[in-house]
Amino acid sequence: MAMLSIQTNVAALDAAMNVGMTQGKLSNTIAQLSSGYRINQASDDAAGLGISEGLEANIAQYTQAAQNTTDGQSVVQTASSALTEVNNILTRMSSLAMEAANSDVNSSTSADANVTTEFNQLVTELTRINNDSSFNGTGLFTGGTNVPTTFTFQVGIGSTPANDTVSFNTFGVDATTLAVTGLKLDNNADSETALTAINAAIATVSTDQANLGAVSEQLSSASNTIAQASQSVSAADAGYRDVNVATASANLSQEQVLEQSGIAVLATANQIPQMALKLLS
Fold first, then answer.
1. pLDDT, tens digit, for every residue of 148-175?
2. If you count DSSP H runs as helices and E runs as strands, how many of each does the chain have, helices first?
3. Distance between CA atoms of residues 252 and 199, nearest Å
4. Average pLDDT of 257-267?
5. pLDDT tens across 18-37, in order?
6. Residue 47: Cβ-neighbour burial (10 angstroms; 0-12, 13-18, 19+)
């Protein structure tokens, strides 16, 4: 049987303690629902917070890897576009060489001079494209400005180059590299020699273009992998960090009822000492 006491109201203390605990839970539930997060401070779930922080770091890394992949695609596409124009120039040069090899053209001094002039301008243009093609201030072909030996794109969140990077070695498409300098179209023999050199240059550029295409495909595959991994990690992080609204709403209703009933009981418990006073009257 409970003892009537004036000095210590045990029932009131118990009720106050329970009300305080309920209010703490209610406050935490309100914070969860208002923020959308199950974990708002370490005390909510220390282990879960640690895991979530690691997952969010991975998400940030995947986001940057996706940006790196996009930048890599842009570099490759810019270089590929320049190669397309180089191939167009070489194709025109081959046509001019074939035209010059025709005896009808070679029999006309003025016609031959016009062909030679255009041919030499195209040779110069090859070197200009090589030296002028760049991406964000970095040259794309050997001989340009600030051209790296290798373009390397970090597309993984690890630090193992074989697994986390995509790269390709730089190359040149200037007239000297393609071995089309000093060619002459003065006669049939010279024109045939020029045509042989130009066809070899076209084959070289075709190989370069194919290599860039392979890098582009690799970057595209990496982009898909990054998107899938990022989605999976985000889902895992949500399981730790995000609040379950249905569960939290149910908890909110229960805690509000407990708070109201606890306060009512506390008010009743506070009247117990008055009952002890009646015994003295």
1. 999 999 999 999 999 999 999 999 999 9
2. 8, 4
3. 78
4. 83
5. 888 888 777 777 877 877 77
6. exposed
Alpha-carbon gap, residue 241 to 233, rounded angstroms: 12
Hey, what are 13's tokens? 């203390």
Task: Count Cβ neighbours within 10 Å for each residue of 95-121 and write b for 16 or more, e otherwise.
Answer: ebbbbbbeeebbeeeeebeebbeebbe
The overall pTM is greater than 0.85: no
Q: Report phi then psi at 135, rounded to 5.
A: -135, 115
**138-139 and 165-169 beta bridge pairing:** unpaired
Tokens of 80: 């590929």
User: Looking up tokens 């600030």, which residue turns up?
Assistant: 146
The three-class DSSP label of residue 166 is: strand
| Structural contact between residues 141 and 170, judged by C-beta atoms closer than 8 angstroms | yes
pLDDT at 42: 79
Q: What ranges do the domains of the chain cover?
A: 10-37+244-278, 71-240
Rounded Cα distance, 203 and 205, in Å: 6
How confident is the model over 162-215, as pLDDT tens digits? 999 999 999 999 999 999 999 999 888 999 999 999 999 999 999 999 999 999
Structure tokens at 270: 């506070």
List CB contacts of 167: < 8 A, sequence separation 6 or more.
150, 151, 152, 153
> Topology of 71-240 in CATH?
f41 fragment of flagellin, N-terminal domain (1.20.1330)
